[in-house]
Amino acid sequence: NAETAALRNIDSAVECFEKLGPSVVLSTPHLESPARSGRHWRELSSSTLSSYKNELQASFVVSRARQRFYELRLNERSFVGVTKTVDITETDTNILLEISSELLGRYGVDYEGLGGKHDELVADLFKYHDAEIQALTSPFAAESCYNGSKRDDIKNKDVPSQKWKGLWDVVALSPMQLANLIQSRHLSLVSILSVCAQSRDDAFQVMTSLLSGLALAALDQYEQLSDQGRKDDKASEPSPSGRNAGDSSDDFFSDSDDDLLGGQSNNDPLDKRQGESALLAARLFIEKLAELVSSCSNADLVRDYATGVEFKMLMHQAIILSSGKHDASSTQMQLLKSPPKLDTLNSISQLFAALLLKVKGDQDVVRELSSTVFKSLIQVIVQLRRNFPTLVRSRKKGDQRLGRAKHQATCVTYASFVAVVASEISRLLSMNQSILYSDGGLEESYLITTITSL
Predict the structure, then answer these.
(1) pLDDT tens sequence across 276-317
(2) In degrees to the nearest 10, what's the CA dihedral of 322, 326, 331, 334?
(3) N or C: which end of the chain has fewer CB within 10 A?
(4) Torsion of CA 374, 375, 377, 379, to 10 degrees
(5) 24-28, 250-254, 444-448: the lowest-pLDDT one
């Protein structure tokens, strides 16, 4: 068919370029036009043709999967029983299995880093659910300033659906969520995959791998955009000329610095919005993982996931990024512009708690899981301790009142975050204490041994 012929012809072209040499590039500016985007229109090479082939393969797989899924017309099915489960026949199940196999043939891979296949799924999610995501980013930005009543609400089992609103059912992990989801006429690939995976015997393994990869992809996108924003903000900081001898570049703010603190900076507001959306998506995937783990009755499956490399990578990355990911070179302006994200830490805590509950009978797994989290939390607290002198450094008299107020509020945000991290560290240590024997011997907590290299 046309798809096979197109891919075969690209393979033939790639072979020709490889025979000529990997550095050979053929410039083709005459092929460019407003309707033709992509490097393969500007120049032909082994690299650009391979990238184009990858795009075509993704397009073919996605188009076929979407078409077959919509042909099932699940949104027109009747609901069964008081739980409103969808009436799916054996034939439907077989088709869903085929669709999932085709999509997993492309997306059922380990996380590949930025630019990998999980980025395609995240981009597709934003395309279909941008309105819901943007509606949630503003209230979530203030979530780190929980009041007491909101913390009490966390005990309510309906909080996820209340907090995430319609976005919670985008990843369907239960019959009720599936029934809510398929009523939409336009679904993202993540949604289609979550629906199809429910028909599989290995649904837990498929969804934990998929959600972990998606969370890592979203976190990496957020990190990339945040790093670029920090570079732009640093470049926009005023020079130290005219300041008193001995003052560093971030000892105080001028009035223009107050403007920056109030939200004006060189980095594109679109990039900031994309970064917030990426972090929100990462939180969604992490909390869906917590839901999936909580609903799993097979402790062996949970154990295998909790001891996997991809999960450990996710826990570490999420904890580090929740702190703002600053280093010794971070200026006061950078610290104020990128405060900790307590909401992200709360999402990770939900997943950690769900896993501990499921594997509590296996001490080896509990130790490995606790060590992973403990080491990351210690890294965070050590780095924040180094950043605090810069953060709280007094500012020059005469600054605008609004700037001082925001400075103080951000310092409180840091202090609240540190308090939560310190509390979690204390809790882990209390569960895994060092033992002093009567003969003077000391059995050190295994948690302490995990941080000796820090």
Answers:
(1) 999 999 999 999 999 999 999 999 999 999 999 999 999 999
(2) -30
(3) N
(4) 160
(5) 250-254
